[in-house]
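Hi U.,

Before I forget, here's the chain from the pilot set. I'm dumping it here mostly so it's searchable later in email.
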Amino acid sequence: MKKYIFMGVIGLFLLGSCNSKSGDGHEGHNHETEKHDHEGCDHDHEGEGHNHEGEEHDHEGHNHSEKAAGGHSDEIILPPAKAQAAGVKSNVIEPGIFHQVIKTSGQVMAAQGDESVAVATVAGVVSFRGKVIEGMSVSKGTPLVTLSSKHMADGDPVERVRIAYEVSKKEYERMKALVGNKIVSEKDFAQAEQAYENARISYEAVAKNNSASGQAVTSPIGGYIKSLLVKEGDYVAVGQPLVSITQNRKLFLRADVSEKYYQYLRTIGSANFCTPYNNKVYALKDLNGRLLSYGKASGGDGGYYVPVTFEFDNKGDIIPGSFVEIFLLSSPLENVISLPHSALTEEQGSFFVYLQLDEEGYKKQPVTLGADNGESIQILSGVKAGDRVVTEGAYQVKLASATNAIPAHSHEH
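Structure:
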């Protein structure tokens, strides 16, 4: 009996324990189940641990970028190999001499003595000798135009000159034989001699270039045909311009300067100019240029402008007659920082350069500009002596900065 009572107490104890654990079933009451769940939980934690490792990896990459940008938050990264391929070049900036600049406009003109015009020696109808076109190279004496007087009411002028020459020659020779015997007066003989010489000069001038097709007009100098002043079939009179020829060895640069700069004209020593057809800047110091003169008064056809004239060698790619932008170089300034145009970039009216910080690091730097001489620009602020500045390929660095602005990865917490 006691045995059964003892067994019943044991059963009630076990049942109570079981019910007690069943009440906390949300924490897991079955050891096997709990163990299984924990194993599953361990598995999830491993996966979660794996995710944390990936998350930790992302944080490491993120922290690396923050660390790299810690010293220069706006640093632009451009590897040396890419910089070289893009033509990026940089130089250490040192102060130098920079001239005060007067910016104006003007014109390139042919130098005096380097241009000539072929004119009509007789009246007639124009016929070009072969292909005569502007820009063509010609030698002195090259036939350019033939002037024909056939079927003209006045007849052939060359034939008329020949007849006048032969008549005057006979009269001169007749009177020459009589003047010694005082049969004709000295005055009459002198007039006959004068008429003869005039007829001879006229005939010799036209006879040497005359042919059956007409009177040939040749180039007076060697050079290039600048312009054709007549067309095929035009009728011209004696002395009318036909073809303009230029040697283009020397050119004039005429700058029209506002009279408000008159007091500075005596300090001008040289100039740079930019042509509209190739946007190239030419420096007179590289073309053996020299100042010829500057005007002492304004007015006239130039309005309120004073002319300043330079002479320089033509290297073959400058067109006489073209209008150009001119940068007159005045008094020199010492210890001025200047940069070439290729070093500057513009954004919404502001100008920037790129400083090279190290082998692959660059920084965008705003600058304030001063005078512009066409080749380089004075820098008033933003760059100091000793800075290494990108002087070529600045826009490539600008493109690299836009590329760096795109995030390399995204991370969500």
